[in-house]
Amino acid sequence: MSEVTGTPRCAAANRYVTTALDEPPDLRGPDVTSAFAELFDAHARQLRGYLAGRVGESAADDLVAETFLVALKRRHSYDPGLAPVKGWLYGIATNLVREHVRRETRGRRAALRVVGRPEPEPDHGHLVASRVDAQRQAAVLARALADLRDEDRDALLLTSWAGLTPAEVAAALGENDSTVRSRLHRVRAKLQALLTEETHDA
Amino acid sequence: MRELDDALDQLHREARTSDASLDAVRARVLAAATAETAPPKRSRRWYAPVAVAAAAALVAGVLAVDNRSQEQRIAAPDATSATSAPEVELLSAPEYLNLAADAITATDQPLAPGQYRYIATHQWNSVGMVFATPADQPDAPASGYTWLRESRHEKWIPHDTNLEWMERRTPLEGLEWLGGSMPRSEAAEPEVTDVDTGERRGACGDFFPNSLPKKVCGDPSDWDNPEFYAALPRDPQAIVRYLRDATSHRGSAPTTAFHWGAEVLRTGLMPADLRAQWYRALALLDGVTAFEQGVNLDGRSGVAIGIDGPHQRRELIIDPATGDFIGERTTAGAQPHDPWVAPGTVTGFSSITTRVVDGIGLTG
């Protein structure tokens, strides 16, 4: 199987990366291993970036593996006509994130874990002003993300961290395009307002 | 929004951009992929891996009743294959249904006086809550949650249906979380209500004598009655017409007609001669597909045949070698009815067993 070896390295996790493959591998075809090697090499790096942001680096590798194992199990029911493979894959991953978080801890503590704990209060004595602002902003954002509803957080981070288009997010979450677009609009406006407020307060 | 994008870009950036090796993860995934036997696709048919002797017996049974293009039906076991599993072709849905229909040669065992037809349904059903959308926010996303809950229903039907029947409903322990707009910890677990439990008796299967409309002995429109099955047509085309008429209030789409057909089978009361024709009728519906082989319900294995709809896929599980109706299954489609349920999630299934027993309350 392996003309394809190793994992391509790319500085993924940039918010504007879109890697929707024109010709996704035939997941229902005879050569399962090659198809999944291709799928893995096309998406694993970026997927890991997304998952590391959501559940931390230590759990990310397991969830990457789980995502592909679930995809393997469900490959016969995957219909390329209904959803681009990327949306399908991130839909699986996002469900696993939700399960993971709920398994790990419960309720509100879990929600905080989703985006990491709030940063500690910055030590003004040792940091330049811009760094302080950035840290405070990160803490505000992390807290705000934790307070979002699952579907809002998923839509936002799938576009921002995973670089999915709203249509791919819709496919991933099993919703329609316009719902996702209006949700994104609402969530982004809300978070932007929070950050602006924070900057002015500071 | 630049500020928000920048802040998101910076948040956990180190973790997100780490180039830690993924080789071990890749190896794990590809090992699992290699362990799956490849199903080469031939026109609209699939080959599915089946490694158990029972499957070989099943194929033999299939071949015994249908020898057409035998070489197309069975692929030679690949001696060099790593798993050395013989590959058995997954036929088209109409082929399976017709084979299953052909295989029903036995008539139902008649009941002697004092004997009962015992029907046991072991099922997992979706139960949950959908909250109303606030009147001032009609566009708010739906909220609620869904569980999958296990139960057993048993029924004893006497030789003379005018005599006393019995049914027993038993809630079982199984409970799975299918999703919700809130965390599992915040969703109420489903309650066991009066009608979920208990043993009831009644002539003609009238277990709830106060319910309306009143149950009438011998009512030919009542699925509990042998008269209902006796009155149905036996010609597959006529059965299709019946399924369309019966679902005309819901548009008669093939998915709806198939669902109706599955629900009638689920009663476990359909006589063998009608069941064979019923399968042939379902094979005539547009979009009927064989989705999976080797689906195991309570230790019995069969082929899943069904129709995909946008919201759900409805499947019957039948044994094409014997024509047995093993059970049925419902899976969430691309746009599940409950938006928090992931597409592809099994949202319900049941296995149905019927046998003749010598007394009310006996199970074997």
Automatic annotation (TrEMBL), chain A:
<protein>
    <submittedName>
        <fullName>RNA polymerase sigma factor</fullName>
    </submittedName>
</protein>
<keyword id="KW-0805">Transcription regulation</keyword>
<feature type="domain" description="RNA polymerase sigma factor 70 region 4 type 2">
    <location>
        <begin position="141"/>
        <end position="191"/>
    </location>
</feature>
<dbReference type="InterPro" id="IPR013249">
    <property type="entry name" value="RNA_pol_sigma70_r4_t2"/>
</dbReference>
<dbReference type="InterPro" id="IPR013324">
    <property type="entry name" value="RNA_pol_sigma_r3/r4-like"/>
</dbReference>
<dbReference type="InterPro" id="IPR036388">
    <property type="entry name" value="WH-like_DNA-bd_sf"/>
</dbReference>
<dbReference type="InterPro" id="IPR013325">
    <property type="entry name" value="RNA_pol_sigma_r2"/>
</dbReference>
<dbReference type="Pfam" id="PF04542">
    <property type="entry name" value="Sigma70_r2"/>
</dbReference>
<dbReference type="InterPro" id="IPR039425">
    <property type="entry name" value="RNA_pol_sigma-70-like"/>
</dbReference>
<dbReference type="Pfam" id="PF08281">
    <property type="entry name" value="Sigma70_r4_2"/>
</dbReference>
<dbReference type="InterPro" id="IPR007627">
    <property type="entry name" value="RNA_pol_sigma70_r2"/>
</dbReference>
<keyword id="KW-0731">Sigma factor</keyword>
<dbReference type="InterPro" id="IPR014284">
    <property type="entry name" value="RNA_pol_sigma-70_dom"/>
</dbReference>
<comment type="similarity">
    <text>Belongs to the sigma-70 factor family. ECF subfamily.</text>
</comment>
<feature type="domain" description="RNA polymerase sigma-70 region 2">
    <location>
        <begin position="39"/>
        <end position="106"/>
    </location>
</feature>
<keyword id="KW-0804">Transcription</keyword>
Automatic annotation (TrEMBL), chain B:
<dbReference type="InterPro" id="IPR047789">
    <property type="entry name" value="CU044_5270-like"/>
</dbReference>
<protein>
    <submittedName>
        <fullName>CU044_5270 family protein</fullName>
    </submittedName>
</protein>
<feature type="region of interest" description="Disordered">
    <location>
        <begin position="181"/>
        <end position="200"/>
    </location>
</feature>
<keyword id="KW-0472">Membrane</keyword>
<keyword id="KW-0812">Transmembrane</keyword>
<feature type="transmembrane region" description="Helical">
    <location>
        <begin position="46"/>
        <end position="65"/>
    </location>
</feature>
<keyword id="KW-1133">Transmembrane helix</keyword>
